[in-house]
Amino acid sequence: MSSSQWSLTLKLVASPGVLSPLLANLLALQRAEEPETQVLLEEAAPENVLQGIGNGRYDLGITWT
Q1: Which of 34, 35, 38, 40 is nearest to 11 (CA)?
Q2: Positive or negative, the Cα torsion across 8, 39, 31, 47?
Q3: Which helix (H) or strand (E) covers residue 61, if one does?
Q4: Residues 6 or more apart from 64 whose CB is under 8 A from it?
Q5: pLDDT digits (tens, 9 = 90+) for 20-29
Q6: Cβ pair 49, 2 in contact under 8 A
Q7: Three-state DSSP class for 12?
Q8: Which three-class secondary structure state does DSSP give residue 8?
Q9: CATH number, domain with residue 13
Q10: How far is it, in rounded angstroms, from Cα 64 to Cα 10?
């Protein structure tokens, strides 16, 4: 299957304070290199980030502890 026939969604969660220009730049680079991959970004408290990763709600989480 070619990449034009499928798409991927990455569910990303970050705790407050992590959403910064650095993360924005990283997401812009990802978008430029993999435009077929949709990134859904949500902000959540650190304990909810860890819980969401554990229960499969999110694929990737970034938090400060």
Answers
A1: 40
A2: negative
A3: strand 60-62
A4: 15, 17, 18, 46
A5: 888 899 999 9
A6: no
A7: strand
A8: strand
A9: 3.40.190.10
A10: 20
Instruction: Read off the tokens for 57.
Output: 């709600």
Domains in the chain, number: 1
Radius of gyration of the chain (CA): 13
| Token pair in block for residue 40 | 């859904």
Range(s) of the domain holding residue 20: 3-62
Task: Match 């999110």 to its residue by tokens.
Answer: 58
Eight-class DSSP state of 56? T
Instruction: Give the closest residue to 12 by CA, choosing from 54, 52, 65.
Output: 52
| Residues in the chain, pLDDT under 70 | 1-7, 65
One-letter amino acid at 63 equals: T
14 C-beta neighbours (distance < 10 Å), count: 21
